[in-house]
Amino acid sequence: MTATLRDLGEFELIRAITARFALGQDVLVGPGDDAAVLSAPDARVVVTTDLLLEGRHFRRDWSSGVDVGHKAAAQNLADVAAMGARPTGLFVGFAAPGDLTVDWALALADGLAAECARAGATVAGGDISSADSIMLGVTALGDLEGRAPVLRSGARPGDVVVLAGSLGRAEAGLALLTAGLGHDADADADADADAGWTGLVTAHRRPRPPYPLGPALAAAGAHAMCDVSDGLVQDLGHIATASGVRIDLDLGGLTALAAAEPLPSAAAELGADPLDWVLTGGEDHALVACLPPAAAIPGGCERIGLVLPGTGVTLAGRPTAGRGGWNHFR
Ligand SMILES: Nc1ncnc2c1ncn2[C@@H]1O[C@H](COP(=O)(O)OP(=O)(O)OP(=O)(O)O)[C@@H](O)[C@H]1O
Ligand SMILES: Cc1ncc(C[n+]2csc(CCOP(=O)(O)O)c2C)c(N)n1
Ligand SMILES: [Mg+2]
Ligand SMILES: [Mg+2]
Ligand SMILES: [Mg+2]
């Protein structure tokens, strides 16, 4: 019989989970005391928090515990990188039903640890409770290393909009799973197994934000930056509003992204528009930044648009109305 959380009990579970987390270079006191202690030589610490709920952000029949751990960490670590900071520590609030297997909970811890390792961070603490379905509340910290934080409000007309990371792939993977396709893709698929439709499903299960490019874009002089959690048009809309500018997207560049296999073949199978996935798909956690025109674009980033006077987000000068993104209450 497989042991459940009820069998193990809260404190043995905490012991088993925290044994999976190494003490990171920035963590002076990790899990085990009333609070953690992190070093912050720069004294400017970035802090962000996000929820991840079963049924809303993931399904247990579509994602393994390791997958959910990767996703919960990535969702928060990308926000740290989007401020131009280097991720340091993660705090994980975890609630689950008592009949969840211990194996699932420890797989979650392994996924969290592995994604933290991708970003150079570690899990420094958390909390555990019981609940009717799985709920994760993750908080991430990062070090600005002496740089100024890159806000949503700093874009200026003339800036070039650049993209680091992928767009539309997680949304395509979700669409495949929803249609009952890709469900057979191995639930423990390695994040590097990114060929074909399996790679799209993997992108939904384990987003791979380009963490080092957050600090790199900040160092290159980015005026504004955010990660794409809800969809490119919607998230750039936040930059446009906060900065009081218009952002015009290049049709050619985005069409090329939508034309890159396997997006078009998956879209054809589902009767979907791959450009819609690229423009409105969330959860790839790419980084988008507005760079001054003279700045060198860091390797791994590509130009996708231009900042202009005005308001809103346009595509080759045309309104993007009707192309929105994820909204929890609509
Ligand atoms: N319940 C809340 N209380 C206080 N501040 C909040 C709350 N929810 C969101 N915010 C703040 O609003 C801002 C925007 O939050 P939002 O969650 O939209 O951004 P995000 O985390 O980058 O995106 P996403 O949640 O889609 O990944 C952030 O500064 C966040 O701290
Ligand atoms: C089972 C299941 N159904 C739907 C979705 C799609 N989805 C959920 S939340 C979100 C935006 C980002 O979340 P947040 O804004 O909370 O960070 C998206 C695109 C999913 N991932 N899993
Ligand atoms: Mg949020
Ligand atoms: Mg964000
Ligand atoms: Mg959101």
Automatic annotation (TrEMBL):
Task: Give the domain of life.
Answer: Bacteria
User: Where, in this chain's numbering, is ATP bound?
Assistant: G126, D127, R152, S229
Annotated positions binding Mg(2+) 5: D230
Q: Where does Mg(2+) 2 bind?
A: D50, D79
Q: Which InterPro entries match?
A: PurM-like_C_dom, PurM-like_C_sf, PurM-like_N, PurM-like_N_sf, ThiL-like
> Reaction catalysed?
thiamine phosphate + ATP = thiamine diphosphate + ADP
Give start and end of each PurM-like C-terminal domain: 156-302
Q: Where does Mg(2+) 4 bind?
A: D34, T48, D79
Residue numbers binding Mg(2+) 1? T49, D50, D127
GO MF annotation: an example = magnesium ion binding
Q: Where is the PurM-like N-terminal domain?
A: 32-142
The UniProt entry's GO biological process terms, in alphabetical order, are:
thiamine biosynthetic process; thiamine diphosphate biosynthetic process
Q: What is its EC number?
A: 2.7.4.16
**Per the UniProt record, which residue ranges are transmembrane?**
none
Main function: Catalyzes the ATP-dependent phosphorylation of thiamine-monophosphate (TMP) to form thiamine-pyrophosphate (TPP), the active form of vitamin B1.
Which PANTHER family does the record cross-reference, listed alphabetically? THIAMINE-MONOPHOSPHATE KINASE
Name recorded for this polypeptide: Thiamine-monophosphate kinase
Source species taxonomy: Bacteria, Bacillati, Actinomycetota, Actinomycetes, Frankiales
Whichever gene encodes this chain, its name is: thiL
